[in-house]
């Protein structure tokens, strides 16, 4: 027994629990401490008392009652507020976590449970070879989706054993972040040291990564689809309220996993959260492009995003093509060849540039800004009557559209001039019905002004649509991306046309069309009919490479009107009913919950400031021209919406400078909030 003279009157006992794997060794230790003892000193005292030789560098104290880590080792117990009743756990900061990836594969790897989720996701993406980690985050599956799955699972007695990819020896497992020296910050291709040829895009950026080429292929290649039966058992949102549930579980990027109740061996979903995919490069992004393709594919199949029948058939044709190529051995070897071709192409381009071959084109682009002039039909929606459709002479110059009564009056003042900079451009096309429309949502003080343009044919539509898309981004038709945009639109229309003209007598092909379309269409059409229409649409893309097909799928997904919208159920200040709020990369949309019709749109470019009243959990936003809104979020924590807005603003600050490192401090400043 120790007498009171051995310890000062200011000492007290603190119970510490150690999370170790040594059998026959105590896990609880009672230490005599003083309030001025710092956390580092407490660790030293505890390790000395345990007298177990092992590496304790990854261990830290977790304060159970306060749900926080004591990571500032120079702080004293008094400064941390630790008293005798505190329960401190001495536990590893890196623990095993199961992650369900967009391609429905599960990986098991060590993740930091003490770092903020933003940093943890960055480390995870380095292990998985996914660039631009800021676009992804971790999602807890909502209880409702799990309950529905469990009800369906009751019918099957034997549980299906899941194939898990174990990545236990990740660089993060040592307790240190992955070696930054091995991260390919400069976009120089990595070369095979043996053959001297460029390494495959699917090979890891890290020499010490646990991703072997075989494991990397699991993440970078799309394997055969699930059965129609499995698809039928998966959770599918039926309404906007159901879609809102999908977005309720995003983790707070400014807090650690442990602080948010995530335990070792728990399963989370790794998903692309922000729909602004920066600098997609087939040479370096094999895993990123595949996971993005898979997230888009499942969103289409489970009807998380709406699309028309002809669009569904195009998506099905691309999936079929990707599935075929992924199964062939040629696809896996094609990457190296394409990279060698790219090098040759780059050298020939350099040769032409040095000879001065393209100078005249550059000068022409600077001095001559093209314009479009055509007869188009203008459609203005009216609330109490039919739409007014009238033909006018339209001129597209710079980033504006002017229209006149006829061609002869084009020298005078226009009836109206529409500035498209910052507007929303939505395709309104039905190839089978020969309908080629462009829907323009032009920002005004109290929301958006809707204008519809109707074109006569595919060529006219492609030229005007491409011009509108560029103008919405503040670019003119002199921009080098104008012609590629026209070609992209034309090829997409051609694919739609092929699917619309499908024949009904296909050859016998080993295809399960039910795997490539949502359940709605498997109920509507017979298998033979679907096969015919998918094969017809497939003819137009049959020459595409694997990466081209995936990128085309992603582009088609991005062109859908609902693309990039994350839904939440909210109650606006002063309103007596609930509404749905859609959050996109550039705007917020208030949507009627019953009809699904948009009521008002507010653009981030017009936003002056936003803040959160944490006491009443209310988000308040101020826009230009004295427009202000406030709402409380009912389907999720208001912090999630606050983080979405700040996150999109943060992502808009990225530039093409490849050596640029992410400003993590700015991200937390914009998204963290002051609770």
TrEMBL record:
The record ties this protein, via InterPro entries, to: Band_41_domain, FERM_2, FERM_central, FERM_CS, Kindlin/fermitin, Kindlin_2_N, PH-like_dom_sf, PH_domain
Instruction: Work out whether the entry's keyword set contains Flavoprotein.
Output: no
Q: Which UniProt keywords apply?
A: Cell adhesion, Cell junction, Cell projection
Q: Main location per UniProt?
A: other
Please, one GO biological process term? Answer: cell-matrix adhesion
For this chain, one GO molecular function annotation is: integrin binding
Subcellular location per UniProt equals:
Cell junction; Cell projection
User: Which SMART domains does the UniProt record give?
Assistant: B41, PH
Q: Which residues form the PH domain?
A: 377-473
Origin, by domain of life? Eukaryota
Provide one Gene Ontology cellular component: cell projection
Q: Which family does it belong to?
A: Belongs to the kindlin family.
Return the protein name.
Fermitin family homolog 1
| Organism expressing this protein natively | Lepidothrix coronata (blue-crowned manakin)
């Amino acid at each position: 027994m120790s007498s009171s003279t051995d310890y000062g009157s200011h000492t007290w006992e603190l119970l510490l629990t150690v999370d170790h794997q040594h059998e026959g060794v105590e896990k609880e230790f009672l230490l005599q401490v003083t309030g001025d003892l710092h956390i580092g000193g407490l660790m030293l005292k505890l390790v000395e008392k345990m007298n177990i030789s092992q590496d304790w560098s990854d261990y830290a104290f977790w304060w159970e009652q306060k749900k926080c880590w004591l990571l500032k080792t120079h702080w004293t117990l008094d400064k941390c507020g630790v008293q005798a009743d505190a329960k401190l756990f001495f536990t590893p900061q890196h623990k095993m976590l199961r992650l369900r990836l967009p391609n429905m594969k599960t990986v098991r790897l060590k993740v930091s449970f003490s770092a903020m989720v933003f940093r943890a996701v960055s480390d995870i993406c380095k292990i998985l070879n996914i660039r631009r980690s800021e676009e992804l985050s971790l999602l807890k599956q909502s209880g409702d989706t799990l309950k529905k799955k469990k009800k369906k699972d009751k019918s099957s007695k034997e549980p299906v054993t899941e194939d898990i990819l174990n990545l236990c020896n990740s660089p993060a497992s040592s307790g240190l972040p992955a070696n930054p020296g091995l991260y390919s910050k400069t976009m120089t291709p990595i070369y095979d040291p043996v053959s001297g040829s460029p390494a495959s895009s699917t090979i890891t950026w890290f020499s010490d990564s646990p991703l072997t080429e075989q494991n990397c292929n699991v993440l970078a290649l799309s394997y055969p689809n699930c059965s129609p039966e499995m698809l039928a058992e998966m959770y599918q949102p039926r309404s906007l309220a159901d879609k809102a549930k999908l977005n309720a579980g995003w983790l707070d990027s400014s807090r650690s996993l442990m602080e948010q109740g995530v335990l070792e061996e728990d399963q989370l979903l790794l998903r692309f959260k922000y729909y602004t995919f920066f600098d997609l490069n087939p040479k370096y992004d094999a895993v990123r492009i595949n996971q993005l393709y898979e997230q888009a594919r499942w969103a289409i199949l489970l009807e998380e995003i709406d699309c028309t029948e002809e669009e569904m058939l195009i998506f099905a044709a691309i999936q079929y093509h990707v599935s075929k190529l992924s199964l062939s051995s040629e696809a896996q070897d094609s990457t190296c060849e394409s990279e060698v071709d790219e090098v040759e192409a780059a050298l020939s381009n350099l040769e032409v540039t040095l000879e001065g071959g393209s100078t005249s084109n550059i000068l022409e682009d600077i001095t001559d800004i093209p314009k479009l002039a055509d007869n188009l039909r203008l459609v203005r929606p009216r609330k109490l009557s039919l739409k007014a459709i009238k033909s006018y002479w339209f001129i597209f110059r710079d980033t504006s559209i002017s229209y006149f009564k006829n061609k002869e009056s084009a020298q005078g003042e226009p009836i109206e001039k529409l500035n498209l900079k910052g507007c929303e451009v939505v395709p309104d096309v039905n190839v089978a019905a020969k309908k080629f429309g462009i829907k323009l949502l032009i920002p005004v003080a109290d929301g958006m002004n809707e204008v519809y343009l109707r074109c006569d044919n595919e060529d006219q539509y492609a030229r005007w649509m491409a011009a509108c898309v560029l103008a919405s981004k503040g670019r003119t038709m002199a921009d080098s991306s104008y012609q590629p945009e026209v070609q992209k639109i034309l090829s997409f229309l051609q694919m739609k046309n092929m699917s619309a003209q499908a024949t009904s007598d296909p050859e016998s092909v080993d295809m399960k069309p039910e795997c490539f379309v949502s359940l709605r269409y498997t109920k509507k059409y017979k298998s033979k009919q679907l096969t015919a229409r998918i094969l017809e649409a497939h003819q137009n893309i049959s020459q595409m490479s694997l990466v081209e097909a995936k990128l085309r799928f992603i582009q088609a997904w991005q062109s859908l009107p609902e693309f990039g919208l994350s839904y939440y159920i909210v109650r606006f200040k002063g309103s007596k009913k609930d509404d749905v709020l859609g959050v996109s990369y550039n705007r917020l949309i208030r949507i009627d919950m019953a009809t699904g019709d948009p009521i008002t749109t507010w653009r981030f470019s017009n936003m002056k400031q936003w803040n959160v009243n944490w006491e009443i959990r209310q988000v308040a936003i101020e826009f230009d021209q004295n427009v202000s809104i406030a709402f409380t979020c009912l389907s999720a924590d208001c912090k999630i919406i606050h983080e979405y807005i700040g996150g999109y603003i943060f992502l808009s600050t990225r530039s093409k400078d490849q050596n640029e490192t992410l400003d993590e401090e700015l991200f937390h400043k914009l998204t963290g909030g002051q609770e």
